[in-house]
Each structure stands twice: as structure tokens, then as C-alpha cells.
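Give me the fold.
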Amino acid sequence: MDKIDQRILRELTRDGRLPNTQLAERVGLSPSACLRRVQELERQGVITGYRAVLNPAAMGKGFVAYLTVGLSDHSKTGQDRFEQAVATMPEVRECHNITGTVEYLLRVEAHDLAAYKRFHTDKLGVVPGVRRLTTHVVMGSPKDERG
């Protein structure tokens, strides 16, 4: 991957709907050369998809939190069971298996604090093998480059 590919990726990260002609102009290529590069980045799996970036508050999900989750069962079976459970929970927008003193980091969106409490207590809190939950409430996001 060269500097032009990196510029293409930077521009597409900022705006995945950027027309190829504008992208080509921004990175200094002809439209056909730019399209070939984008297609090659897709073929290589560097670009894995395009998606809309949603505003949780505008969708009625004004409460955002990150949770660390510690499991009592550290086996592959225990982790698979937990991952299958959170896959069915629409409040969980991200689930990351991490290293350290806990096994998972979740990003959760809920309507408000009361809805989050119901999720925490009635859904996540009853998943077999969950030993410890720690909530970190998002108060603001001065930088958020998730695509």
C-alpha cells in the first residue's frame, strides 16, 4: 500500500459516499485509475464495506456507555456462550474480546438511564458466567472516528 492508497482510505473514511470523480480529484488520479485502486483495496479486504454512521441521540438512544465484563468461566465454551448471548441484544452495538483483568468491552446504547438499568439487570446481568460488570458512562465524544 502506497501513499496514494493511504490518501484514498483517508478520504473514504471521512466520506464513504464520495463520488469516484471527486475522490480521484482529491488524491490526484484519473477517475479510472482511482476506481481500479479502490476496487483492488476492496478485493484485498482492506476495504471491507461501507456503512451509514448513525447518531444515537437522534434515534432515541441518548444514553451511551462502555461496559467491561468479567466472566467466571474463562474457557472457549464460556466465551462462546457469552458472545452468542450478546449477539441477540440490540443495545450492544460493539463487543470486543480484550486482554487484562476482564474479558470483554461492550458499547451499549439505550434510550435513557432507566432503559440502561433494565438492560444491565434483566438482560446482561442474567447471562450465565457473567461475574463482574463495570459501567463507564459516555459524557461526550470529542473525537470519534468509528465508521
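The first strand starts at residue 63 and ends at 71.
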